[in-house]
From TrEMBL:
<dbReference type="Pfam" id="PF12697">
    <property type="entry name" value="Abhydrolase_6"/>
</dbReference>
<feature type="domain" description="AB hydrolase-1">
    <location>
        <begin position="40"/>
        <end position="267"/>
    </location>
</feature>
<dbReference type="InterPro" id="IPR050228">
    <property type="entry name" value="Carboxylesterase_BioH"/>
</dbReference>
<protein>
    <submittedName>
        <fullName>Pimeloyl-ACP methyl ester carboxylesterase</fullName>
    </submittedName>
</protein>
<dbReference type="InterPro" id="IPR000073">
    <property type="entry name" value="AB_hydrolase_1"/>
</dbReference>
<feature type="region of interest" description="Disordered">
    <location>
        <begin position="164"/>
        <end position="191"/>
    </location>
</feature>
<dbReference type="GO" id="GO:0003824">
    <property type="term" value="F:catalytic activity"/>
</dbReference>
<dbReference type="InterPro" id="IPR029058">
    <property type="entry name" value="AB_hydrolase_fold"/>
</dbReference>
Length: 276
């Protein structure tokens, strides 16, 4: 597909479609590629690729790195093979993508569901992946620190759980400006929510994950928003404690989506750890 210029940049941002053969069958991945040098793979959560897009551009500009931002199959109207079920299967597809692109020394950064996915990628022991950053990840079960159940909550209620300052939450366009052709034909879960549940299950957790994380053999930086009420900092500390080579960083005045609410602080945390 043709390249499109990034805002404020003379370097192009490409959108490529890759067809990958995996154990789940053929998987189509749509990937925004900020083509630089050092590679990063950014994995979005349930909010979709838009929740990572701004941070992808910031990371590429500030570090002059190559930043890959894929859309998980089934999100954003992309196709999802029937056989692609479970987070581990999706992780295998992303390792196949790194093989296809022949990338090495890749740092995988994932937020929320994407953090769980990044952990599953780490567990595959791909020689192409040198480190993982899990940002307010989900996926484990922590006694005394349950994930918030957002089913049935309104958007403002979810934003109050997700943001230190809900005024920083992206606002949907007014109903009058929405194209009815893009709206679901009937009430019910959005396609993105359906895709998320298809991977993560209704509980949004894997009871085996915390124990399996003990086998991660690469450095993992666990970053958490101090004001996250979807998965609290106590949950985040348990996530880090389950991983042998982990570092935990708590970001003040931010919630479940630091890359949206405080991208400069998140970038600073990543660069600070990399310079130690």
């Amino acid at each position: 597909m043709p390249s499109t210029p990034a805002a404020g940049s003379l370097r192009p941002v490409r959108t490529d479609v890759h067809i990958l053969e995996t154990s789940a069958g053929a998987v189509e991945l749509t990937v925004r590629d900020h083509d630089r040098a050092r590679p990063f793979l950014l994995l979005h959560g349930g909010g979709g690729v838009a929740s990572m897009a701004g941070f992808a551009g910031l990371l590429a500009e500030r570090t002059h790195s190559r930043v890959l931002l894929p859309t998980h199959p089934g999100f954003g109207g992309t196709p999802k093979p029937a056989g692609l079920t479970g987070v581990a299967a999706l992780a295998q597809a992303y390792v196949a993508l790194l093989d296809r692109l022949d990338l090495t020394d890749v740092t995988v950064i994932g937020n929320s569901f994407g953090g769980w996915l990044a952990a599953e990628i780490a567990l595959l022991n791909s020689p192409r992946v040198s480190g993982v950053v899990a940002v307010d990840a989900i996926g484990i079960e922590v006694e005394g620190h349950p994930q918030a159940d957002i089913r049935g909550l309104s958007l403002p209620e979810i934003q109050r759980l997700s943001f230190h300052d809900p005024r920083k939450a992206p606002q949907p366009p007014p109903a009058a400006t929405q194209d009815p052709r893009t709206q679901p034909p009937a009430p019910g879960p959005s396609p993105d929510v359906q895709a998320l549940v298809g991977y993560a299950g209704p509980a949004m957790a894997d009871p085996s994950l915390a124990e399996r994380l003990a086998k991660v053999a690469i450095p993992v930086h666990v970053v958490w928003g101090e004001s996250d009420r979807i998965v609290t900092p106590g949950y985040g500390k348990a996530f880090a404690a389950a991983i042998p080579m982990s570092t935990f960083t708590l970001l003040p005045r931010t919630g479940h989506l630091p890359q949206v609410e405080s991208p400069e602080e998140l970038l600073g945390a990543l660069l600070d750890l990399g310079n130690r």
